[in-house]
Amino acid sequence: QVQLVESGGGLVQAGDSLRLSCEASGHIFNDYAMGWFRQAPGKEREFVAAISSSGGDTYYADSAQGRFSISRDSAKNTVSLQMNSLNIDDTAVYYCVADPYRPDAWKYRTLEVWGQGTQVIVSL
């Protein structure tokens, strides 16, 4: 069973950058696609970014494209989300997710493993 622990959230100003990390326990990290979702107050959880198990394919929501970058380090069992040019609409709890299926299939699935979330607050 893969378990996920997020870190790196915090309070930043609009225009700043922030890097979220998610460490996965378990020996099957390399078999899982990884990604990030977020949930803003009063809104539904939404997809942000994902990366395939090999690291060769990345996927981004329109809101993240060009500002966010997802990467993974198999030696450290870690996936990271570099977020640049943050704005107040990025304020949310960010959740790390892991699933054995490719991210382009995630819309049809209940994803297997979720982290507890890390809060990101962007102020003006």
Element layout with pairings:
Elements: E1 3-7, E2 10-13, E3 18-25, E4 33-39, E5 46-51, E6 58-60, E7 68-73, E8 78-83, E9 92-99, E10 113-114, E11 118-123
Parallel strand pairs: 2-11
Antiparallel strand pairs: 1-3, 3-8, 4-5, 4-9, 5-6, 7-8, 9-10, 9-11
Number of strands: 11
Largest sheet: 7 strands, mixed
Oligomer: single chain
Q: Mind telling me the C-alpha Rg?
A: 13 Å
The SSE order reads: EEEEEEEEEEE
Low-confidence stretches: none
Structural class designation: mainly beta
Protein traits:
mainly beta; single chain; 4-stranded antiparallel beta sheet; 11 strands; 124 residues; 7-stranded mixed beta sheet
Task: Describe the structure concisely for a colleague.
With 124 residues, this protein is mostly beta strands. The protein is built from no helices and 11 strands.
Characterise this structure:
The chain is mostly beta strands and 124 residues long. The protein contains no helices and 11 strands. Strands 2, 4, 5, 6, 9, 10 and 11 form a 7-stranded mixed β-sheet that branches. A 4-stranded antiparallel β-sheet has the order 1-3-8-7, with no helix packed on it. A hairpin with a 6-residue loop joins strand 4 (33-39) and strand 5 (46-51).
